[in-house]
Amino acid sequence: MQMKRLFLLSLLLVTALSFAIGQKSVVSKKNPVTPPQNIQDMAGVLPSGDEGSDLIALGDSCMELYDTHGALPYYLQAYHQNPTFETRQKLANCLYQRCDYRQCVTLLSGIPVTSMTHDALRQLFFSYSYLKNEKELVSSGQSLLLRFPMDAEVLARLCTVLCDLDKAGEAVTLARDYYRRDSTNLLVNRILASSLYLDRQFQPAIQQYQKLLAAGDTTYLALYSLGIAYDYLGNKQQAYNYLLGANNFSNPKKAGCLYRLGMICVDLERYEEALGYLYNAEVKLQPDRTVMKLIYDSNAQAYYATEKYVLAYEEWKKAHRCDGTSLAYIYNIGASCVAIYEQAKAKNPEYPEYWGTETPRILQEAIDYFALFLEMAEDKGREIDAETQRMINEAHKYIEMYKPNE
């Protein structure tokens, strides 16, 4: 009998609770809401019957489901009704999750640091980072670390920005202070090593990078920085070892590493090896050859059309260096050589067709390029189109016209 009475009482409680939840659901879901576009535009977002604490709870329940869209109207109305530091931070957190960093900063920057949670301080700091506001980032980061000195992620980001601002010495001080408390955090150890390197404290930087390698944290940056540090200290062999390691580690190869490795090889008198690295560095450092050859060719055509033949010649030579297989570039170099000669001869009637029994250098170069053009045209092994056939005929004509006297 007692058990039956308890069962009936439990059933009544469950029924009552279900009814209460249903009623609350009706109140909170009536009049579907649309989040305002600005935190200042908050009036009338939800029915006025909802209390601030209930609104916060509703917003929190949405955030637990990662529904920032659903949470935003509740937090906005709670902030409108009672703009406390708590409601500011709740709303700011929702806006931060939605990447609305400007409005997040607007809300949080007005709260005293001592009244902000750790999460709110981080959101303010990283909002400044996303907004590229380095001055405020540094200030907010320093404030956060005064209260939470073991926040390694914030410290590492702050040190990176300080290094970018040519304040590597300040970054070293911050990272070392953390390191004294915890020498095992890889994120901080990396930024300490790079800060020492950028502050030109090469020997301590080498020691720190060696610790990273010993811990298994081998990266391209660590190997490259070690190579450069050893180079500055005059240890060319160690510089070569680590730069070679960095070059082998990276894929694709990096131009800066190839260049420094080539220069070290020159210092070590490994000349053949140096030539290979320096050539690859040159190729990497040049812009896209496909694009550049088109630019050079267009320049050359414009110069040729305006009778600036020397400039046209130079541009087609550049285009040819980008694409040595183009028949048009080879032919046009020869044609521009002929145009240079004919223009000079027209300006000066005394210009000799021949210097003794030798062909002038510019004409000899024209003949050489026309000969190369004809050789490559024949090796193409494909049907010759009308334009290529015209150039073939012209090349033969020019060679016959300007070949040296027997």
Describe this structure in words.
The protein has helices at residues 2-29, 52-64, 68-81, 85-97, 101-108, 118-130, 134-147, 152-164, 168-181, 186-198, 202-214, 220-232, 236-249, 255-267, 271-285, 289-305, 309-322, 327-347, 361-379, 386-402. It starts with a helix and ends with a helix. It is 74% helix and 0% strand. The longest helix is centred in the N-terminal third of the chain and has 28 residues, at 2-29. With 406 residues, the chain is mainly alpha-helical. The chain is built from 20 helices and no strands. Helix 4 (85-97) packs antiparallel against helix 5, helix 6 (118-130) packs antiparallel against helix 7 (134-147) and helix 14 (255-267) packs antiparallel against helix 15 (271-285).
